[in-house]
Write a structure and sequence with these properties.
The complex is a heterodimer of chains A (about 110) and B (about 180). Chain A is an alpha/beta fold. Chain A contains 3 helices and 6 strands. Chain A has a 6-stranded mixed sheet, with helices on one face. With about 180 residues, chain B is an alpha+beta fold. Chain B contains 6 helices and 6 strands, in the order E-E-H-H-H-E-E-H-H-H-E-E. In chain B, strands 1-5-6-4-3-2 form a 6-stranded antiparallel sheet. The chains are: A alpha/beta (about 110), B alpha+beta (about 180).
Chain lengths: ~110, ~180
């Protein structure tokens, strides 16, 4: 399962139950972010033992993208189906700040910065 | 009318970059917003000892300002003016554009809420939880950069320049030592 274009790639690695984000994600069209959120929800619906969201190779994400990520967390929090781990890049300031906020939205999220 | 931390910048100031972009060009090829932000950030961070980190932060901030302007500016009227000033220890970003009267009123409210905000993080989390698809009225893009980065933000609201058309200016000042 994957979504990609010339600027970014989102790929589900079913060997390690991880959705890997890379590139630059600065979309305008709200429909495109809905597709990404639905992709993440579809993976979440696979009833995995755990789910990792790996952002360490995602260089840019605009505020619409950060909002989409937050909405995803708010939705899956209601079901509390599996542990969610977020991997971020300690050298990218928007990641360290925004992922700490995700933990405020749902304290069960595990954060790891590499 | 000025809201928040806004300083008048002399057009002829040295060590600055100015770009005038057409809103229609930005809307049609949306990645131009990011390209412009990346270019400005790369140029300004080129001699910074922490270049990679600073470049990423500056591009993230500037991209948000340009995207905000590109979304709200009338497509066939005026320009989105991007003004970057290198004051050595601080960087000033200013983005000017035109808006319709209804957007002008909404933006004044957003600016007022942001300027009054004591706890940017709390306001940001509340906006995230309440956010629907119409993000413009929440000001979430501006709250994002205000919350994530140590910067000062200010707004200037000009009078009407035409039939129901107004000029707005958003400014951020970023301290390089804290970004």
């Amino acid at each position: 399962m994957h979504i990609e274009n010339e600027d970014f790639k989102i790929h589900f690695d079913n060997n390690i139950n991880s959705i890997n984000f890379s590139g630059s994600l600065r979309l305008w069209n709200p429909d495109e972010y809905l597709k990404i959120k639905q992709f993440m929800l579809d993976v979440h619906d696979l009833n995995l033992p755990e789910l990792t969201l790996d952002f360490k190779d995602l260089v840019f994400l605009n505020s619409s993208g950060i909002s989409t990520l937050c909405k995803f967390i708010i939705e899956v929090k209601k079901f509390d189906k599996m542990p969610i781990r977020i991997i971020g890049n300690s050298q990218i300031l928007w990641q360290t700040k925004s992922f700490q906020n995700l933990k405020l939205l749902w304290d069960k999220i595990e954060l790891r910065f590499v | 009318m000025i809201i928040g931390n806004y300083v008048e910048v002399d057009d002829g100031i040295k060590n600055s970059l100015k770009m005038s972009l057409l809103p229609d060009d930005l809307s049609r090829v949306w990645k131009r917003c990011g390209m412009t932000a990346d270019y400005g950030a790369t140029y300004l961070s080129s001699v910074s000892p922490d270049r990679v980190k600073i470049q990423n932060s500056l591009s993230t901030i500037l991209n948000e300002l340009i995207e905000n302007a590109a979304k709200n500016a009338p497509k066939q009227l005026g320009t989105v003016d991007v003004f970057l000033v290198d004051n050595r220890n601080t960087i000033l970003f200013q983005v000017d554009n035109y808006v319709s009267e209804s957007q002008y009123r909404i933006f004044q409210q957003v600016a007022g809420n942001i300027a009054k905000c004591d706890d940017a993080n709390a306001k940001y989390l509340k906006a995230l939880e309440n956010c629907d698809e119409n993000q413009r009225e929440s000001g979430i893009g501006l709250l994002t950069i205000l919350n994530f980065f140590n910067l000062k933000m200010g707004f200037k609201f000009g009078g009407a320049v035409g039939d129901g058309i107004y000029h707005v200016s958003v400014q951020t000042v970023i301290s390089l030592q804290e970004s």
